[in-house]
Write a structure and sequence with these properties.
By secondary structure, chain A is mostly beta strands. Chain A is built from no helices and eleven strands. Chain B has strands at residues 4-6, 11-14, 19-25, 32-38, 45-50, 54-58, 61-66, 71-76, 85-92, 100-101, 105-110. Classes of the chains: A mainly beta, B mainly beta.
Chain lengths: 113, 111
């Protein structure tokens, strides 16, 4: 089991640029979650999918953020245009059917300068 | 706004002591409760889950749940320096639902 795989591990970009974060969930898991972690706000849920369908995107901060899950093995989180306040660690997590807790990926540390 | 609150930290205990970490939640329909451990620079790792009132023990860890008081805690017995990490409390309303996390409390175990 390779676990939840995120890429890139680190991303440094300039304000205004487009950023795409990628996630591969654990095979067989049907729920996928995107979280953002900062010192000030802790872990915040941005969006989650069940069976590739977005269920709750109320945590997406604004229209600059979008997420897709085109199939069961891949999801992206896109920020366009990026701003310095988007700097954070972005985690992807997945969970199996009927499961409770979930497994996190290693995260992407995003720095927008 | 459904909230999960944890004690403000950090918490420092000597090696071998019992560390007590506390968490309260606001949503009365919450059914599932979790403790995650996060080492600096790493991702959260699930260490305990509890679904019924009372205590659940796993090695040096004991989770305690009191739904009437909307309170869940984690006790770490015989604390070790390797237990030094941030501990996150998480709550959900059941299977297939999202987890809401507290901000975490940082534990430091002094040798």
């Amino acid at each position: 089991d390779a676990g939840v795989i995120q890429s890139p591990r680190h991303e440094v970009t300039e304000m205004g640029q487009e950023v795409t974060l990628r996630c591969k969930p654990i095979s067989g898991h049907n729920s996928l979650f995107w979280y953002r972690q900062t010192m000030m706000r802790g872990l915040e849920l941005l969006i989650y999918f069940n069976n590739n369908v977005p269920i709750d995107d109320s945590g997406m901060p604004e229209d600059r953020f979008s997420a897709k899950m085109p199939n069961a093995s891949f999801s992206t989180l896109k920020i366009q245009p990026s701003e310095p306040r988007d700097s954070a660690v972005y985690f992807c997590a997945s969970r199996g059917q009927g499961g409770y807790g979930y497994t996190f990926g290693s995260g992407t540390r995003l720095t927008v300068v | 706004q459904k909230e999960v609150e944890q004690n403000s930290g950090p918490l420092s205990v000597p090696e071998g002591a019992i560390a007590s970490l506390n968490c309260t939640y606001s949503d009365r329909v919450s059914q599932s409760f979790f403790w995650y451990r996060q080492y600096s620079g790493k991702s959260p790792e699930l260490i305990m889950s509890i679904y019924s009132n009372g205590d659940k023990e796993d090695g040096r860890f004991t989770a305690q749940l009191n739904k009437a008081s909307q309170y869940v805690s984690l006790l770490i017995r015989d604390s070790q320096p390797s237990d030094s990490a941030t501990y996150l409390c998480a709550v959900s309303t059941g299977a297939n639902s999202k987890l809401t996390f507290g901000k975490g409390i940082t534990l430091s175990v002094r040798p």
